[in-house]
Amino acid sequence: MIGKRVLGLFGVLSAVAGLGVASSAGAQPVVGVPHQWQMDFPPSYTPLMDKVASLHDLLLVIITVISVFVLFLLIYAMWRFHASRNPTATVTTHNTVLEIAWTIIPILILVVIAIPSFRLLYYGDKTTDAALTVKVTGHQWYWSYAYPDQGNFTVESRILSEADRVKMKPNQPRMLAVDEEMVIPKGANIRIIGTAADSMHGWTVPGFGIKKTVIPGRLNEGWINVREEGYYFGQCSQICGNMHSYMPIAVRVVSQAEFDKWVEQKKKSAGLLPATDVASATPPANR
Ligand SMILES: [Cu+2]
């Protein structure tokens, strides 16, 4: 689709532009953000979103063919059976062949749609071998991300005020930048377990093809595998209260080495690792 290609080009251009700004800050480029005049899906960054887009493309072909066919029938009937051209109306009430056809053909079309649709549902349901799990919890009105496989530390992610964003993350989009992103390694299957602390929220990142409604007292599962490093953004997609629009979702995708470094740092500040620097180590008592 031409529209998609043009938008894809915009994506690349803005990613390159973002890279220029980001590299000066020594961080990942801003990749997964909405663009001006965007009309199609956002560019895809995960295998799941690839499949969502291709199912959409299949459905677009099917509905276009059906719409054009119905439009043709309407126009033809208006022309062919106009009173001036067809003064005496036919009294035909049944046509067995036609009736069987207009029952069977729609069934076949629905089956053709159902097969890839169910395959996609099961594909997006869960990952078979996850490199790690991130437990996402929606709160009024911020997100927290727990890393049970890395010692179970938790990161809280809150929107930056406009003044703080300009000061701390000027290259990131307004209303989407947060103080602490969810950090994951690139190219790894990440199991997402979602729940909520108070009301229902929706953990949604459009470019990842994931949209998990998170519900208090329940665990919902999904997965992502992001190909490229960068910052990706989404928004809470479940009306959750008066600050619903102020709990954006930001994901920072990094290399495995950088992820390991980040984990060490988080574990240390959560008190899960002994301090390794000499200055803060407790001196031996009897010396
Ligand atoms: Cu919410």
Question: What is the structure about, briefly put?
Answer:
The chain is of the alpha/beta class. The chain contains 5 helices and 11 strands; from the N terminus they run αβααβββαβββββββα.
Your description of this structure?
The protein is of the alpha/beta class and 287 residues long. The chain folds into two domains: 47-125, Helix Hairpins (Orthogonal Bundle); 132-269, Cupredoxins -  blue copper proteins (Immunoglobulin-like, Sandwich). It contains five helices and eleven strands, in the order αβααβββαβββββββα. The chain has helices spanning 2-25, 47-80, 96-125, 162-168, 256-269, and strands spanning 30-32, 132-139, 142-147, 153-157, 182-185, 190-196, 201-205, 210-214, 220-224, 230-235, 248-254. Strands 4-3-2-6-9 form a five-stranded mixed beta sheet, with no helix packed on it. Helix 2 (47-80) runs antiparallel to helix 3. The chain is elongated and about 95 Å long. Residues 1-26 have low confidence and may be disordered. Bound molecules: copper (II) ion. The site of copper (II) ion has 7 residues, from loops.
Question: What does the secondary structure layout of this molecule look like, with pairings?
Answer:
Elements: H1 2-25, E1 30-32, H2 47-80, H3 96-125, E2 132-139, E3 142-147, E4 153-157, H4 162-168, E5 182-185, E6 190-196, E7 201-205, E8 210-214, E9 220-224, E10 230-235, E11 248-254, H5 256-269
Parallel strand pairs: 1-10, 2-6, 5-11
Antiparallel strand pairs: 2-3, 3-4, 6-9, 7-8, 10-11
Bound molecules: copper (II) ion.
